[in-house]
Specification:
By secondary structure, the protein is an alpha+beta fold. It has helices at residues 4-9, 31-38, 49-70, 77-87, 114-131, 163-181; strands at residues 12-14, 22-24, 92-99, 102-109, 137-139, 148-150. 46% of the residues lie in helices and 15% in strands. It is elongated, with a radius of gyration of 19 Å.
Length: 183
């Protein structure tokens, strides 16, 4: 799954190899602009400190809600109300467009600013919860990674975010068994 909210959740990066390195990619110059450009969100100005702080707060809220799902609990009403307040920050208008012989409506922002981006991230997370199974939202079992992903496997048994983490954990288990048998 390729959702905008997952990109923002995973902007709180931890080195999966266990080096202890950590990076808040929202603070990395140019990272956020590249993300919104990749997503087709064209913002008129670069993010200021308030926009970055608001995105960090939204990310913390989404992380808190993900943790509730990981513990097989529902997010609190307060968390849902807070997410709705972020959704309120992105007013839009509907436009009818013709594509060949068909018509579609498109949502256009009233302002192409960072409030709109906040609303789009919140809308992405809300859509993930509303249109998909929240129990499939998982966090990589590599304790050094913390990557959040949506498990699209048929039997919902995916444990790692990517093959690199899965391979690393297999090697660690193998070495631990081997070291235990050499004693």
């Amino acid at each position: 799954m390729n959702a905008l909210c997952l990109d923002v959740l995973n902007s709180d990066w931890h080195d999966y190899r266990g080096t202890g390195k950590h990076e808040d990619r929202l603070l990395k110059p140019g990272w956020l602009q590249q993300l919104v450009a990749r997503r087709g969100l064209h913002v008129a100005s670069p993010p200021d400190a308030n926009a970055i702080a608001a995105l960090q707060s939204l990310r913390a809220l989404m992380q808190h809600m993900v943790q509730a799902f990981l513990q097989q609990q529902a997010p609190s009403e307060q968390d849902i109300a807070m997410l709705n307040s972020y959704l309120d920050t992105a007013p839009f208008k509907l436009h009818l467009v013709r594509i060949g012989e068909h018509y579609q409506t498109r949502q256009l922002p009233l302002n192409n600013d960072w409030h709109w981006v906040l609303g789009e991230v919140a809308a992405s997370f809300a859509a993930l919860l509303a249109h998909h199974d929240p129990s499939r939202i998982k966090q990589c079992e590599n304790p050094d990674c913390r990557w959040v992903y949506y498990d699209e496997s048929a039997n919902q048994n995916r444990r790692w975010c990517e093959d690199s983490c899965a391979n690393l954990m297999r090697v660690r288990r193998f070495r631990a068994r081997r070291q235990g048998s050499n004693r």
